[in-house]
Amino acid sequence: MATEPIDMEVAGMCVNEFGGAIGMPQLCGEWFGNQIFWLVVALVAIYFILSRIALPRIGSVLAERQGTITNDIAAAEDLKVKATEAEAAYDKALIDARAEAHRIVAAAKADIQADLNKAIAQADAEIAEKAAESEKAISEIRASAMQNVEEVAKDTAQAIVAALGGSADAKTVSAAVEARMKG
């Protein structure tokens, strides 16, 4: 394809002899009208596309997002109120549980003290009984020991008197030993 020269008077100042643009075609004053027409057509088309398709979708997404945020904030407030109520119920239950534990501990201490007092009373009774038995046994042992001491003293006194060469009857020895033992 060979390029043929065109008539310059018909083409205008912005086109060379072969029909190509000279310099930047956007800056050619002869084409401004055409460029402005297509600019207006393009802007109107973009406006209608944006206003009828894109902006309603963006608006619905923004409205949905705002609704979700509002619902989430409301749900968070509800959950916060429920959490506060649950915390109050937990604190009350904890206080009640501590009071119940103190009551149980006090009751257990009272039961233990009652059992301890009963055991101490029983032990005191057993000790008193054993002490009485021991006193009785000690009294019996003392009585028999004194009797044995008296007999041994009588036998010893008779043996000493006989060893010294004297004679003593049993009645005299018994009277002397009894007198000595009485003090």
From TrEMBL:
GO MF annotation terms: proton-transporting ATP synthase activity, rotational mechanism; proton-transporting ATPase activity, rotational mechanism
Keywords, alphabetical: ATP synthesis, Cell membrane, CF(0), Coiled coil, Hydrogen ion transport, Ion transport, Membrane, Transmembrane, Transmembrane helix, Transport
Membrane topology: Single-pass membrane protein
InterPro entries on file: ATP_synth_b/b'su_bac/chlpt, ATP_synthase_B_chain
Domain of life: Bacteria
Ranges in a coiled coil: 76-140
Cellular component terms per the entry's GO annotation: endomembrane system; plasma membrane; proton-transporting ATP synthase complex
Transmembrane segments annotated in the record for this chain: 36-55
Pfam families: ATP-synt_B (PF00430)
Keyword Thylakoid in record: no
Subcellular location, record wording: Cell membrane; Endomembrane system
Protein transport recorded as keyword: no
Family from the record: Belongs to the ATPase B chain family.
Described function: F(1)F(0) ATP synthase produces ATP from ADP in the presence of a proton or sodium gradient. F-type ATPases consist of two structural domains, F(1) containing the extramembraneous catalytic core and F(0) containing the membrane proton channel, linked together by a central stalk and a peripheral stalk. During catalysis, ATP synthesis in the catalytic domain of F(1) is coupled via a rotary mechanism of the central stalk subunits to proton translocation. Component of the F(0) channel, it forms part of the peripheral stalk, linking F(1) to F(0). The b'-subunit is a diverged and duplicated form of b found in plants and photosynthetic bacteria.
Cross-referenced NCBIfam families: PRK13454.1
Oligomer and partners: F-type ATPases have 2 components, F(1) - the catalytic core - and F(0) - the membrane proton channel. F(1) has five subunits: alpha(3), beta(3), gamma(1), delta(1), epsilon(1). F(0) has three main subunits: a(1), b(2) and c(10-14). The alpha and beta chains form an alternating ring which encloses part of the gamma chain. F(1) is attached to F(0) by a central stalk formed by the gamma and epsilon chains, while a peripheral stalk is formed by the delta and b chains.
Protein name in the entry: ATP synthase subunit b
Species of origin: Sulfitobacter marinus
